[in-house]
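Reopening this ticket.

The earlier resolution said the output was attached, but the attachment link was broken on my side. Pasting everything inline this time so it's all in one place.
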Amino acid sequence: MSAVPAGRDAADRDARRVPVRRLTVLYDAGCSLCGFLRDWLGRQPQLVPLEFVPAGSAQAAARFPGLDHRATLDEITVVGDLGQVYRGAAAWIVTLWALREHRPLSHRLSTPAGARLARGAVLAAAKWRDGQGRTAGWGGAVHHRGDGWSYDPRQGWRYDPPTCADGTCPTG
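Inline output:
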């Protein structure tokens, strides 16, 4: 998901002109949310075909021997037909990009502001999965990230940018 060069409009970004012709979505077959999303994605009209392979499976290991397959169970991973690997928020964005009705949303999420929203959605999904007993669990407390985002289950998401006063002055 890269920026479109100056002077090119949205018509230049259609599926006929892109190098990705097929995407493989590695999903956690043991996660009910992941299974629901796999089914939902499979029902959507696709500009780029999506194939679904259980993460951590023998099939995934045979097809993608260079991937860290344990990590694919922790974070959504999408592989393009030419070996492109997308993880986390970028994986969700490229998956939405493959869908006819959601491509405009994927372009909005590929902006800096949209990417923060996509990262927050991926983090929320990961925390929900944790609460379902797949890992040690979240416990429902406020979760703070190093980039200024925090999630409180009672109040939702909040962004407090780092400041120089707390010794974490952003440098660039």
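Reporter confirms the inline version is readable. Residues 112-134 form the longest helix (23 residues). The first strand starts at residue 23 and ends at 27.
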